[in-house]
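can u pls check wat happens w/ adenine
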Amino acid sequence: MTDLGPFIAGLPKAELHIHIEGSLEPEMMFALARRNGVSLPYASVEAVRAAYSFSNLQDFLDLYYQGMSVLIHEQDFHDLTMAYLRRAVAQNVRHTEIFFDPQGHTERGIAFKTAIDGIWRALRDGERELGITSALIMCFLRHLDEASAERTLDESMPWRDRIVGVGLDSSEKGQPPSKFQRVFARARSLGLLAVAHAGEEGPADYVKQALDLLQVVRIDHGNSALDDAALVARLAREKMSLTVCPLSNTRLCVVKDMAEHPLRRMLQAGLMATVNSDDPAYFGGYMNENFLAVQQALDLSREEIVTLAGNGFRAAFCDEATKRRYLAELDAYSLSRR
Ligand code: ADE
Ligand code: ZN
Protein backbone atom coordinates (compact mmCIF):
# COMPACT_ATOMS: atom_id res chain seq x y z
CA MET A 1 0.00 0.00 0.00
CA THR A 2 1.44 3.43 -0.93
CA ASP A 3 1.97 5.83 1.93
CA LEU A 4 -0.32 8.79 1.24
CA GLY A 5 0.86 10.58 4.41
CA PRO A 6 3.09 13.11 2.59
CA PHE A 7 0.42 13.65 -0.10
CA ILE A 8 -2.23 14.33 2.56
CA ALA A 9 0.10 16.62 4.52
CA GLY A 10 0.71 18.85 1.50
CA LEU A 11 -2.88 18.80 0.27
CA PRO A 12 -4.66 22.19 0.40
CA LYS A 13 -7.66 21.66 2.68
CA ALA A 14 -10.78 23.32 4.08
CA GLU A 15 -12.05 22.52 7.56
CA LEU A 16 -15.80 22.90 8.03
CA HIS A 17 -16.42 21.24 11.39
CA ILE A 18 -14.24 22.38 14.27
CA HIS A 19 -15.50 23.49 17.68
CA ILE A 20 -12.97 26.11 18.72
CA GLU A 21 -13.44 25.12 22.38
CA GLY A 22 -12.54 21.57 21.31
CA SER A 23 -9.11 22.76 20.17
CA LEU A 24 -8.10 23.53 23.77
CA GLU A 25 -4.99 21.41 24.27
CA PRO A 26 -4.26 20.28 27.86
CA GLU A 27 -1.07 22.40 27.92
CA MET A 28 -3.06 25.54 27.16
CA MET A 29 -5.79 24.45 29.59
CA PHE A 30 -3.19 24.36 32.36
CA ALA A 31 -1.54 27.62 31.29
CA LEU A 32 -4.89 29.47 31.22
CA ALA A 33 -5.96 27.90 34.54
CA ARG A 34 -2.78 29.26 36.10
CA ARG A 35 -3.13 32.67 34.42
CA ASN A 36 -6.77 33.01 35.55
CA GLY A 37 -6.57 31.35 38.97
CA VAL A 38 -9.00 28.59 37.96
CA SER A 39 -8.56 25.23 39.68
CA LEU A 40 -8.72 22.07 37.59
CA PRO A 41 -9.50 18.60 38.95
CA TYR A 42 -6.26 17.22 37.43
CA ALA A 43 -2.71 17.16 38.76
CA SER A 44 -0.98 17.35 35.39
CA VAL A 45 -1.27 17.57 31.63
CA GLU A 46 -0.75 13.79 31.52
CA ALA A 47 -3.65 13.29 33.93
CA VAL A 48 -5.92 15.34 31.66
CA ARG A 49 -4.89 13.28 28.62
CA ALA A 50 -5.44 10.07 30.58
CA ALA A 51 -9.02 11.19 31.28
CA TYR A 52 -9.76 11.37 27.53
CA SER A 53 -11.30 7.95 27.25
CA PHE A 54 -14.92 8.21 26.21
CA SER A 55 -17.71 5.65 25.76
CA ASN A 56 -20.15 8.07 24.18
CA LEU A 57 -20.80 11.72 23.29
CA GLN A 58 -21.97 12.69 26.79
CA ASP A 59 -18.76 11.39 28.41
CA PHE A 60 -16.82 13.74 26.18
CA LEU A 61 -19.17 16.71 26.58
CA ASP A 62 -18.80 16.55 30.38
CA LEU A 63 -15.03 17.13 30.03
CA TYR A 64 -15.46 19.59 27.17
CA TYR A 65 -17.67 21.91 29.25
CA GLN A 66 -15.36 21.55 32.24
CA GLY A 67 -12.33 22.39 30.07
CA MET A 68 -13.98 25.63 28.89
CA SER A 69 -13.98 26.97 32.45
CA VAL A 70 -10.43 28.31 31.96
CA LEU A 71 -11.61 30.69 29.20
CA ILE A 72 -12.34 33.94 31.01
CA HIS A 73 -10.86 36.94 29.17
CA GLU A 74 -10.98 38.14 25.59
CA GLN A 75 -7.27 37.37 25.32
CA ASP A 76 -7.94 33.71 26.28
CA PHE A 77 -10.37 33.29 23.38
CA HIS A 78 -7.86 35.01 21.11
CA ASP A 79 -4.98 32.76 22.21
CA LEU A 80 -7.08 29.62 21.84
CA THR A 81 -8.18 30.56 18.32
CA MET A 82 -4.72 31.70 17.25
CA ALA A 83 -3.16 28.42 18.44
CA TYR A 84 -5.72 26.48 16.37
CA LEU A 85 -5.10 28.63 13.29
CA ARG A 86 -1.34 28.10 13.52
CA ARG A 87 -1.81 24.33 13.66
CA ALA A 88 -4.30 24.43 10.81
CA VAL A 89 -1.97 26.48 8.60
CA ALA A 90 0.93 24.13 9.41
CA GLN A 91 -1.28 21.34 8.00
CA ASN A 92 -2.09 23.29 4.83
CA VAL A 93 -5.65 24.16 5.83
CA ARG A 94 -6.44 27.17 3.63
CA HIS A 95 -9.96 27.91 4.87
CA THR A 96 -11.70 27.10 8.14
CA GLU A 97 -15.26 27.50 9.43
CA ILE A 98 -15.23 27.62 13.18
CA PHE A 99 -18.07 26.74 15.54
CA PHE A 100 -18.31 28.41 18.90
CA ASP A 101 -20.70 27.70 21.77
CA PRO A 102 -21.72 31.08 23.26
CA GLN A 103 -24.06 29.45 25.81
CA GLY A 104 -21.11 27.44 27.15
CA HIS A 105 -19.68 30.80 28.19
CA THR A 106 -22.69 33.01 28.97
CA GLU A 107 -24.14 30.25 31.22
CA ARG A 108 -21.05 30.62 33.45
CA GLY A 109 -21.09 34.42 33.46
CA ILE A 110 -18.71 35.19 30.58
CA ALA A 111 -20.14 37.85 28.26
CA PHE A 112 -20.98 37.01 24.64
CA LYS A 113 -18.82 40.00 23.68
CA THR A 114 -15.75 38.59 25.46
CA ALA A 115 -15.91 35.34 23.50
CA ILE A 116 -16.72 36.75 20.09
CA ASP A 117 -14.27 39.66 20.30
CA GLY A 118 -11.37 37.32 21.15
CA ILE A 119 -12.24 34.75 18.49
CA TRP A 120 -12.88 37.43 15.88
CA ARG A 121 -9.62 39.29 16.53
CA ALA A 122 -7.71 36.02 16.08
CA LEU A 123 -9.55 35.23 12.82
CA ARG A 124 -8.57 38.64 11.48
CA ASP A 125 -4.95 38.23 12.70
CA GLY A 126 -4.90 34.75 11.14
CA GLU A 127 -6.02 36.03 7.77
CA ARG A 128 -3.55 38.92 7.82
CA GLU A 129 -0.53 37.11 9.28
CA LEU A 130 -1.05 33.51 8.19
CA GLY A 131 -3.21 33.89 5.07
CA ILE A 132 -5.98 31.56 6.28
CA THR A 133 -9.56 32.57 5.40
CA SER A 134 -12.36 31.76 7.81
CA ALA A 135 -15.99 32.04 8.82
CA LEU A 136 -17.69 31.88 12.21
CA ILE A 137 -20.74 29.74 13.01
CA MET A 138 -22.64 30.20 16.28
CA CYS A 139 -24.02 26.96 17.72
CA PHE A 140 -27.00 26.54 20.02
CA LEU A 141 -26.67 23.91 22.73
CA ARG A 142 -29.45 21.39 22.16
CA HIS A 143 -29.58 20.21 25.81
CA LEU A 144 -30.80 23.73 26.73
CA ASP A 145 -34.27 24.99 25.81
CA GLU A 146 -35.26 26.94 22.74
CA ALA A 147 -35.85 30.12 24.80
CA SER A 148 -32.15 30.11 25.71
CA ALA A 149 -31.24 29.74 22.03
CA GLU A 150 -33.59 32.65 21.23
CA ARG A 151 -31.88 34.84 23.84
CA THR A 152 -28.50 33.87 22.39
CA LEU A 153 -29.63 34.86 18.90
CA ASP A 154 -30.80 38.22 20.30
CA GLU A 155 -27.50 38.67 22.11
CA SER A 156 -25.53 38.03 18.91
CA MET A 157 -27.23 40.82 16.96
CA PRO A 158 -24.61 43.54 17.60
CA TRP A 159 -22.14 41.17 15.90
CA ARG A 160 -24.45 39.94 13.16
CA ASP A 161 -21.93 40.78 10.43
CA ARG A 162 -19.29 38.52 12.02
CA ILE A 163 -21.48 35.40 11.95
CA VAL A 164 -22.16 33.46 8.75
CA GLY A 165 -24.52 30.89 10.20
CA VAL A 166 -26.06 29.06 13.12
CA GLY A 167 -25.51 25.46 14.15
CA LEU A 168 -26.88 22.97 16.66
CA ASP A 169 -24.62 20.86 18.87
CA SER A 170 -24.22 19.13 22.26
CA SER A 171 -26.14 16.03 23.44
CA GLU A 172 -28.12 14.66 20.51
CA LYS A 173 -30.10 11.76 21.98
CA GLY A 174 -33.59 12.88 22.96
CA GLN A 175 -32.95 16.42 21.64
CA PRO A 176 -34.53 16.46 18.16
CA PRO A 177 -34.01 19.30 15.69
CA SER A 178 -37.79 19.96 15.90
CA LYS A 179 -37.17 21.55 19.31
CA PHE A 180 -35.34 24.44 17.59
CA GLN A 181 -37.57 25.03 14.59
CA ARG A 182 -38.63 28.58 15.52
CA VAL A 183 -35.21 29.93 16.44
CA PHE A 184 -33.73 28.50 13.24
CA ALA A 185 -36.53 30.09 11.19
CA ARG A 186 -35.75 33.45 12.77
CA ALA A 187 -32.01 33.00 12.22
CA ARG A 188 -32.62 32.20 8.54
CA SER A 189 -34.90 35.22 8.21
CA LEU A 190 -31.92 37.30 9.41
CA GLY A 191 -29.86 35.90 6.54
CA LEU A 192 -27.91 33.37 8.58
CA LEU A 193 -27.14 30.00 6.99
CA ALA A 194 -28.28 26.94 8.94
CA VAL A 195 -26.28 23.82 9.76
CA ALA A 196 -26.91 21.21 12.44
CA HIS A 197 -25.27 18.19 14.02
CA ALA A 198 -27.53 15.31 13.09
CA GLY A 199 -27.12 11.57 12.90
CA GLU A 200 -24.02 11.46 15.09
CA GLU A 201 -25.64 9.48 17.92
CA GLY A 202 -29.21 10.27 16.90
CA PRO A 203 -31.34 8.44 14.30
CA ALA A 204 -31.71 9.05 10.56
CA ASP A 205 -34.98 10.82 11.35
CA TYR A 206 -32.99 13.65 13.01
CA VAL A 207 -31.14 14.16 9.72
CA LYS A 208 -34.52 14.42 7.98
CA GLN A 209 -35.75 16.87 10.60
CA ALA A 210 -32.61 19.00 10.16
CA LEU A 211 -33.35 19.17 6.42
CA ASP A 212 -37.12 19.68 6.58
CA LEU A 213 -37.62 21.63 9.81
CA LEU A 214 -34.37 23.57 10.17
CA GLN A 215 -33.69 23.85 6.42
CA VAL A 216 -30.00 23.28 6.86
CA VAL A 217 -27.56 23.68 3.99
CA ARG A 218 -25.01 21.29 5.55
CA ILE A 219 -25.33 18.32 7.87
CA ASP A 220 -22.69 17.94 10.58
CA HIS A 221 -21.79 14.20 10.83
CA GLY A 222 -24.84 12.54 9.23
CA ASN A 223 -23.56 8.99 9.81
CA SER A 224 -26.93 7.47 10.67
CA ALA A 225 -28.42 8.73 7.38
CA LEU A 226 -26.96 5.53 5.92
CA ASP A 227 -29.63 3.56 7.80
CA ASP A 228 -32.26 5.01 5.46
CA ALA A 229 -31.81 4.30 1.72
CA ALA A 230 -34.40 6.87 0.63
CA LEU A 231 -32.68 9.53 2.73
CA VAL A 232 -29.29 8.64 1.20
CA ALA A 233 -30.80 9.02 -2.28
CA ARG A 234 -32.23 12.38 -1.30
CA LEU A 235 -28.94 13.64 0.17
CA ALA A 236 -27.16 12.64 -3.05
CA ARG A 237 -29.85 14.23 -5.26
CA GLU A 238 -29.78 17.47 -3.27
CA LYS A 239 -25.94 17.48 -3.18
CA MET A 240 -26.16 18.00 0.56
CA SER A 241 -22.74 18.18 2.13
CA LEU A 242 -21.84 16.17 5.23
CA THR A 243 -19.06 17.26 7.57
CA VAL A 244 -17.70 13.88 8.62
CA CYS A 245 -15.29 13.55 11.57
CA PRO A 246 -13.50 10.17 11.53
CA LEU A 247 -11.39 10.34 14.73
CA SER A 248 -14.32 11.84 16.64
CA ASN A 249 -16.50 8.94 15.52
CA THR A 250 -14.10 6.28 16.80
CA ARG A 251 -13.22 8.15 20.01
CA LEU A 252 -16.92 8.60 20.86
CA CYS A 253 -17.75 5.02 19.86
CA VAL A 254 -20.14 6.18 17.13
CA VAL A 255 -18.08 3.85 14.92
CA LYS A 256 -16.54 0.75 16.52
CA ASP A 257 -13.47 0.55 14.37
CA MET A 258 -12.07 2.90 11.72
CA ALA A 259 -12.17 -0.03 9.27
CA GLU A 260 -15.97 0.14 9.62
CA HIS A 261 -16.17 3.89 9.06
CA PRO A 262 -19.05 4.79 6.70
CA LEU A 263 -17.00 7.33 4.69
CA ARG A 264 -16.30 4.95 1.81
CA ARG A 265 -20.00 4.00 1.61
CA MET A 266 -20.90 7.70 1.65
CA LEU A 267 -18.61 8.35 -1.32
CA GLN A 268 -19.91 5.28 -3.15
CA ALA A 269 -23.47 6.55 -2.64
CA GLY A 270 -22.47 9.86 -4.26
CA LEU A 271 -22.71 11.87 -1.05
CA MET A 272 -20.81 15.12 -0.73
CA ALA A 273 -18.70 14.04 2.25
CA THR A 274 -15.91 16.15 3.75
CA VAL A 275 -13.28 15.31 6.40
CA ASN A 276 -12.98 17.39 9.58
CA SER A 277 -11.49 17.24 13.07
CA ASP A 278 -14.49 18.20 15.33
CA ASP A 279 -12.62 18.55 18.66
CA PRO A 280 -8.98 17.89 17.75
CA ALA A 281 -7.48 18.41 21.22
CA TYR A 282 -9.78 15.71 22.63
CA PHE A 283 -9.84 13.20 19.78
CA GLY A 284 -6.17 12.77 18.96
CA GLY A 285 -5.73 14.70 15.77
CA TYR A 286 -6.21 17.66 13.49
CA MET A 287 -7.01 17.52 9.77
CA ASN A 288 -4.03 15.49 8.54
CA GLU A 289 -4.46 12.86 11.24
CA ASN A 290 -8.15 12.53 10.37
CA PHE A 291 -7.48 12.17 6.65
CA LEU A 292 -4.66 9.70 7.24
CA ALA A 293 -6.52 7.53 9.77
CA VAL A 294 -9.53 7.06 7.53
CA GLN A 295 -7.45 6.76 4.34
CA GLN A 296 -5.38 3.94 5.83
CA ALA A 297 -8.27 2.10 7.47
CA LEU A 298 -10.42 2.17 4.31
CA ASP A 299 -7.53 2.10 1.83
CA LEU A 300 -8.89 5.21 0.13
CA SER A 301 -7.23 6.11 -3.15
CA ARG A 302 -5.41 9.33 -3.94
CA GLU A 303 -8.39 10.29 -6.15
CA GLU A 304 -10.82 9.73 -3.27
CA ILE A 305 -8.65 11.92 -1.02
CA VAL A 306 -8.67 14.68 -3.65
CA THR A 307 -12.47 14.37 -3.97
CA LEU A 308 -12.82 14.72 -0.18
CA ALA A 309 -10.56 17.78 -0.05
CA GLY A 310 -12.37 19.30 -3.05
CA ASN A 311 -15.73 18.73 -1.35
CA GLY A 312 -14.43 20.75 1.60
CA PHE A 313 -13.91 23.77 -0.64
CA ARG A 314 -17.12 23.19 -2.64
CA ALA A 315 -19.21 23.02 0.54
CA ALA A 316 -17.57 26.06 2.15
CA PHE A 317 -19.43 29.30 2.81
CA CYS A 318 -16.76 31.50 1.21
CA ASP A 319 -17.43 33.49 -1.96
CA GLU A 320 -17.25 31.82 -5.38
CA ALA A 321 -13.99 33.49 -6.44
CA THR A 322 -12.23 32.27 -3.27
CA LYS A 323 -13.64 28.78 -3.82
CA ARG A 324 -12.40 28.71 -7.41
CA ARG A 325 -8.95 29.86 -6.31
CA TYR A 326 -8.67 27.09 -3.73
CA LEU A 327 -10.03 24.44 -6.09
CA ALA A 328 -7.52 25.52 -8.76
CA GLU A 329 -4.75 25.19 -6.18
CA LEU A 330 -5.98 21.72 -5.27
CA ASP A 331 -6.08 20.74 -8.95
CA ALA A 332 -2.56 21.97 -9.54
CA TYR A 333 -1.35 20.14 -6.42
CA SER A 334 -2.86 16.79 -7.38
CA LEU A 335 -1.64 17.08 -11.01
CA SER A 336 1.90 17.90 -9.86
CA ARG A 337 2.01 14.74 -7.76
CA ARG A 338 0.75 12.21 -10.29
N1 ADE B 1 -19.82 19.84 20.81
C1 ADE B 1 -18.51 19.69 20.60
N2 ADE B 1 -18.26 18.58 19.91
C2 ADE B 1 -19.44 17.99 19.66
C3 ADE B 1 -19.85 16.82 18.97
N3 ADE B 1 -18.99 15.99 18.39
N4 ADE B 1 -21.15 16.53 18.93
C4 ADE B 1 -22.03 17.34 19.51
N5 ADE B 1 -21.70 18.45 20.15
C5 ADE B 1 -20.42 18.79 20.22
ZN1 ZN C 1 -19.13 18.66 16.21
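The chain has one domain: 5-21+75-336.
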